[in-house]
Every structure is written in C-alpha cells, then in structure tokens.
C-alpha cells in the first residue's frame, strides 16, 4: 500500500518504512506525527483519489531527527555597475520514518456528525425561495440605475472631445565638450 501525502507545500509518495525529508515540523525527536493531507491512496490495482484529500485517511510517521539542508549561495550582480550581493541559505528539515498508513481515521468520525445538520423541511424551502428572489430583485434595480448613469456621462464626454495626438518632442543628445546633436 502507498499514499501521496502533502506537507510543507510539497507532495511525497510514501509506503510503510520509508524515510523522507520534509520541511520543518514542530515535533521533538522520537515523537509521532500524523499527516492528514492524504491526496491519493493506492493498493495494487485499487487507487483512491481525493477531492482534494481522501476522507478518513492519514499517515503516521515518527520523527527521526531535526536537521538542516545543504548551504545554498545566492549571488546577485548587475553588470557594469559594480553591484554585487551574496547571501546564503540553509533550509530547516525534518527526517520522518513512515510507520503506518491509515485508511480510516478516528479524527474524521466526529466530522461526519458535525456535517449532518438538521435539514430544513421542503415546505419551508419553497416559502423561503420566493422571498429571497424578491429581495434580490429589489436590491439589484437601484444598483443598476446608479451604475448606468455614470457610464452615460462618461460616454457623452468621450464623444464631445475628439482624441488629439501630440507630436513627439525632438530630443537632444549631449556629446563630448558640450556640443549637442538633434535626433530626427
């Protein structure tokens, strides 16, 4: 069985007993971490794709160590300007060992109960719908009139004044010893 897990903005394909390096998680060494963003579960021919995550699925992992990645040198320069900036970076990482892939989670069960809200009776829905439509129509009419008026004024102004293109000004280029040359 394998799973695709999302953590730290990246996705990892994991199986049991895999070790992966992920962006730093707030956990001590030896502590168990639950990764609940499971994007896909696969078991031989059966594949379950989440929308966006698979419901009732999680991956348990044990923190092996908190470490840092390799040093990366960032060097910026601008040619002919004597401008150079050097900066270094080392990413904080967590080494995880996958211990178990759960296809059903205890944490997801209460979510189902919260999702099962008392439904509104069909008769009440029918009465509420015409009231909502009438309110929406009443609100949309004044707004449409207010928006149309400024648009008409702007159109009238545009028609009264024809667009005039200005001619490009001639530029002068300074040469050595104060002489000037005109560009045509």
Structure report:
- By secondary structure, the protein is α+β, with helices and mostly antiparallel strands.
- It has a domain at 2-73 and 87-105.
- The chain has helices at residues 108-115, 122-160; strands spanning 2-7, 10-15, 19-23, 32-35, 38-43, 46-49, 58-68, 72-78, 83-89, 92-102, 172-174, 180-182.
- A four-stranded antiparallel sheet has the order 2-1-5-6, with no helix packed on it.
- The longest helix is centred in the last third of the chain and has 39 residues, at 122-160.
- The protein is elongated.
- The model is unreliable at 107-126 (pLDDT under 50).
Helices and strands in order, then pairings?
Blueprint: E1 2-7, E2 10-15, E3 19-23, E4 32-35, E5 38-43, E6 46-49, E7 58-68, E8 72-78, E9 83-89, E10 92-102, H1 108-115, H2 122-160, E11 172-174, E12 180-182
Antiparallel strand pairs: 1-2, 1-5, 3-10, 4-7, 5-6, 7-10, 8-9, 11-12
Compact overview of the structure:
With 184 residues, the chain is an alpha+beta fold.
Helical content (DSSP H or I, runs of 4+) = 25-40%
DSSP E strands, number: 12
Strand portion: 35-45%
Gyration radius (Cα, Å) is: 32 Å
Describe the structure using short key phrases.
184 residues, alpha+beta, four-stranded antiparallel β-sheet, 26% helix, elongated
């Amino acid at each position: 069985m394998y799973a695709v897990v999302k953590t730290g903005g990246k996705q990892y394909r994991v199986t049991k007993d895999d070790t992966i390096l992920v962006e730093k998680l707030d956990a001590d060494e030896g502590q168990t971490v639950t990764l609940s963003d499971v994007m896909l579960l696969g078991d031989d021919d059966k594949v379950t794709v989440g929308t966006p995550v698979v419901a009732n699925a999680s991956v348990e992992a044990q923190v092996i160590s908190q470490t840092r990645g390799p040093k990366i040198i960032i060097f910026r320069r601008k040619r002919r300007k004597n401008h150079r900036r050097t900066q270094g970076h080392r990413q904080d990482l967590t080494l995880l060992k996958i211990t178990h892939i759960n296809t059903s989670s205890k944490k997801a069960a209460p979510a189902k109960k919260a999702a099962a809200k008392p439904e509104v009776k069909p008769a009440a829905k029918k009465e509420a719908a015409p009231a909502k439509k009438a309110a929406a129509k009443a609100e949309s009419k004044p707004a449409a009139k207010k928006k149309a008026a400024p648009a008409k004024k702007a159109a009238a102004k545009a028609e009264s004044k024809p667009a005039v293109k200005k001619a490009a000004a001639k530029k002068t280029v300074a040469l050595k010893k104060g002489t000037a040359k005109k560009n045509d």
